[in-house]
Amino acid sequence: MPLVQISARNRAAPISADQARAIQKAHQRLAPEAPILIMVHGFKYAPDCPGHCPFDSLFAPQNHSAYTRSRSWPHALGLRPGRESATEPLCIGFGWQGRGALHRVYRRAAQAGQALAGLIEDLAALAPGRRIDLMAHSMGARVVLSALPRLRPGLLGTAILMAGAEFRKPAEAALASPAGQSLQLINIISRENWLFDYMFEWALAPHLWRSRSLGRGLGRGLIRGTAARVDLPIDDTAALSALKSHGLTIAPRQKRICHWSVYLRPGIFGLYRRLLLNPALLPELHQSLRANAQPTRRLQWITSSWPPLPFGGKSTS
């Protein structure tokens, strides 16, 4: 399993000579349809920060028992160290400084997006013609979206945004760029994340009451989008039924409030693996989601419909 760890530094993400050789070697060995997968963490993670380093947890080859709210994304995708498969992706863990005050990290995420764009261009030069996919959680979605206006069209394949921490307006602007228009995007959302969406909106734009985060979806309604833009509410029974019709069984919601269910939920990485290894699945999945959705239903984000949170008791996630 090829796995390369790269960190953003001063709006750039340099690739070492050894890493470049490893990437070129993997490119020569992998099947043409195997993608490069760039994984992007979110808020409160930072490279080389003890207890918060994504390379020790989210991007590690295997799960680590010390991290209870994270899991190895490569391991969850079915990738194993030492196992060579020509169809599996070349994984790139992209680290950036995601620690600090929320408003500062939000600005820094855009700078990390500039570094990510440069990294994508470098990868395209090292592995010509190979599709580059993206997977991002939380504020990592802003990093990914901030990179799009800086990229040439045609470099990217699929982006999976999990509980994305970004506002809808800049997201739509990024997706309207040439690179964004050629991108397949699936926006993973859940009412488990409503508290985090609410706090994100009010912490960064309390005066803009119409500002809405990606957690509320890219548009109105339960399921909305073209075949290349899909909102997937993983807490919705109709959506889960649609996934099951494609052989994708995802466990129902297990917690009222959880920012990490988008990668901790049992079965969720089976969906991600299928989307990454079979890009043609997304248009098919979109049709199934539309067929299973109830046309009159709307995503409900009314916080008063939830019982009071036990802030003085046990953790909710």
Automatic annotation (TrEMBL):
UniProt keyword annotations, A-Z: Hydrolase
Nucleotide-binding found in the keyword field: no
InterPro entries with a match to the protein in the record: AB_hydrolase_fold, DUF900_hydrolase
Xref: Pfam families: DUF900
SUPFAM superfamilies: alpha/beta-Hydrolases
Recorded coiled-coil stretches: none
GO MF, one example: hydrolase activity
Superkingdom, taxonomy of origin: Bacteria
Record protein name field: Alpha/beta hydrolase
Organism: Harenicola maris
